[in-house]
Amino acid sequence: MWHMPLESPFAACMEVMNECTIIFLTYGQLCFTDFVPEEDTRSVIGYVYMGVSIANILVHLIFLVLASSHKVKLMFRK
After folding, report:
1. 64 in helix, strand or coil?
2. Cα 60 from Cα 47, distance rounded (Å)
3. Among 19, 13, 15, 12, which residue's Cα sits nearest to residue 4?
4. CA-CA distance, 69 to 64, in Å (whole number)?
5. Which of 24, 31, 55, 74 would bridge 45 by S-S if both were Cys, CB 3.0 to 4.6 A apart?
């Protein structure tokens, strides 16, 4: 985060969140191999994997809805 190649600090933070999520999920895929021998543990890891994915999607949807509603509000004020 020393260099800000994106337009706003918010966009940079969202990009960092995406990168962290991708790294976490990529490393999490190793747990679905024979590296983790117990099926119950793989099942729990699967739920965590889905939770992280859904959380990332929800964060993006929330900010998408907020930005869209703000644009609609400005459009109606004109």
Report:
1. helix
2. 20
3. 12
4. 9
5. 31
What is the spatial distance between Cα 31 and Cα 68, in angstroms, rounded to a whole number?
38
Q: How many helices (H) and strands (E) does the chain have?
A: 2, 0
Per-residue tokens: 59:
């964060």
Say whether 73 sits in a helix, a strand or coil.
helix
pLDDT tens-place string over residues 13-62 = 899 999 999 999 999 999 998 888 898 999 999 999 999 999 999 999 99
Buried (b) or exposed (e) across 47-63, using 16+ Cβ within 10 A?
A: eebeeeeeebeeeeeee
Question: The tokens 């260099």 sit on which residue?
Answer: 3
Identify the CA nearest to 8 among candidates 69, 75, 67: 67
